[in-house]
Amino acid sequence: MTALAPAQSDQTPQVPLRVLICDEMNPGELQHEGFEIDYQGNMDRAETLRRLPDYDALITRSRTKVDRELIDAAGPRLRVIGRGGVGVDNIDLEYASLRGLLVLNAPESNNVSAAELAVMHLMAAARGLTRSDRKTRAGEWDRKFLGLELKDKTLGIVGLGRIGSIVADRAQGLRMKVVAFDPYVPQNKFERLGVERAETLDDLLARVDALTVHTPLTEETQGMIGAAQLAALRSGAIVVNAARGGIVEEGALVEALSSGHLFAAGVDVFVDEPPTSDHIFLGAPNLGITAHLGANTVEAQERVGAEIVSRVLAALQGDVSKGAVNAPALDAKTLEALGGYLQLGEKLGRILTQLLPGAHDVEVTFRGEFPADPAPVVTATLVGYLSGSTEDTPNMINARALAKERGLNLTVRQEQDSPDYQTEVIVTVRRGMPGEKQRTRTVGGTVFGRSPRLTRLRDYRVELEPEGHILIASNEDKPGAVAKLSNLLGTWGINIAGMALGRAAKGGQALFTLTLDDGLSAEQLQAIRDLDVIDSAFLVRV
């Protein structure tokens, strides 16, 4: 990785590192030894282009477009770009990475504000604030409406990350019982927060009086609260979405409100923002709406400015552990030596997060002689394991810090000999606290040329390219299992692109993997598990 050079040593003349802040914010203290911070809020673009070559770092909000023109104008001196807040849509991340520029943000600064907004929506929905406000303004004095007390009610939280954890704390202060679903969070965090764990989303939905979502918007979470999930809630439940538009399906939410199944709801986010004048939310009954105001408090704006300045100054001194959004390219020598292994590590991590999410231990074992120090492969494995499970996007810079925050214990082992391959990377994850049943999953792989290969699943030897949709099935080592499964896939029109077989001993337990051209629905996967020749079946996407 292209490391950021630290500040000059005491043996050389101290030349201040210069930072330009070109957008309005509250940057806090601007006097820092060894730095010269120039705050010019709302600087026009022409002036920014003219002055930027004289600075080591640039800090913006959303107003300034950090595109190719601006990056090229900066010249070789610029090393760090800081974005005050969460989003980085105004920055050309791909080009910044190509140029070796580190991009930072400060997403944690608005955690309290975002959590409090969700609680506000919850309380407003329970007491009919939007309904009463509308009627009173229209001249109708309606005192017949009966709201709900939140005390002794059960709140369900989807996503127990930083914001979800704060919501849980505030809800407990309201004397609510809190249950959460987050398969990526270790059990010890639930225990620390005093939150009950729901093993599945369906389990959560059936038990709660109110539901709030606090999870990143990913392929997995897009539309995860749809018509079926809303119908599974108790009649008269409350739903809040102050996370990302699209996690709760908009049409399904309006229908559940209109039918009376839901008591009320609150939203701070839309799929498309700002909404059009005919958006279905605007005419929905008992729905409170805010204009994506999660981060909009005086305190959050003060924190975000001071925090992004602090992170940029730390990065200029060589500490890139906090707030990194992108990963500047590895140096050519390391990339040439470990490129295939970095891909392998990330793929192994992605497989394991689907086989056993929420692990508390990650163990990476290197077998054989690697062409370079394999330490970056550990980081790549964490990138894969954490993908889609944190509020931040993991990368080669921040993955270890995110893993520590998530509570993952990391162990790295080096074995000189590799009995089956010249080199092999084996990753094991474990879940289960002391006194509980421990669950363990192990995968391994190697690199042929520059192409990653999967070589191990649990105790079974396999060999296949880790790409696309992979069906992993175990069965008793008898003829006919693969044929029965293949026939079933054929009836669904799903083509098998590749197959690998493995077994521990003749006549014992066997495992086989099928690489499929298409994914499987939950119903199709269950049908496979119901086959009399199949003991277990899992689908992973790599």
Report the biggest beta sheet as strand number plus sense, adding barrel if it closes: 7 strands, parallel
> C-alpha Rg, in Å?
26 Å
Report strand %.
15-25%
Got a strand count?
22
What's the overall average pLDDT, rounded? Answer: 89
Percentage of residues assigned to helices = 25-40%
Task: Walk across the major sheet and give the strand order.
Answer: 8-7-6-9-10-11-12
Structural class: alpha/beta
Tertiary shape: globular
Question: If helices are DSSP runs of H or I spanning 4 or more residues, what is the number of helices?
Answer: 16
Stretches where pLDDT falls below 50 for ≥5 residues?
Answer: 7-12
The N- and C-terminal alpha carbons lie at a distance of 24 Å
Family: Belongs to the D-isomer specific 2-hydroxyacid dehydrogenase family.
Pfam families: 2-Hacid_dh (PF00389), 2-Hacid_dh_C (PF02826), PGDH_inter (PF19304)
Catalytic activity: (R)-2-hydroxyglutarate + NAD(+) = 2-oxoglutarate + NADH + H(+); (2R)-3-phosphoglycerate + NAD(+) = 3-phosphooxypyruvate + NADH + H(+)
Protein name: D-3-phosphoglycerate dehydrogenase
Give an account of the 3D structure.
The chain is of the alpha/beta class. Helices cover 31% and strands 24% of the residues. It has helices at residues 45-51, 68-74, 93-98, 111-127, 129-137, 162-173, 187-193, 201-205, 227-232, 250-258, 298-316, 332-355, 375-386, 399-406, 481-491, 522-529, and strands at 17-21, 35-39, 57-60, 80-83, 102-105, 154-158, 177-181, 196-197, 210-213, 237-241, 262-267, 287-289, 361-368, 409-415, 423-431, 439-448, 451-457, 460-464, 469-476, 496-503, 509-516, 536-541. It has a seven-stranded parallel β-sheet with strand order 8-7-6-9-10-11-12, sandwiched between helices. The protein has a six-stranded mixed β-sheet with strand order 14-13-15-16-17-18, with helices on one face. It has a five-stranded parallel β-sheet with strand order 2-1-3-4-5. Helix 9 links the parallel strand 9 (210-213) and strand 10 (237-241). Helix 1 packs parallel to helix 2, helix 4 crosses helix 6 (162-173) and helix 13 crosses helix 14. The longest helix is centred in the middle third of the chain and has 24 residues, at 332-355. The two termini are 24 Å apart. The model is unreliable at 7-12 (pLDDT under 50).
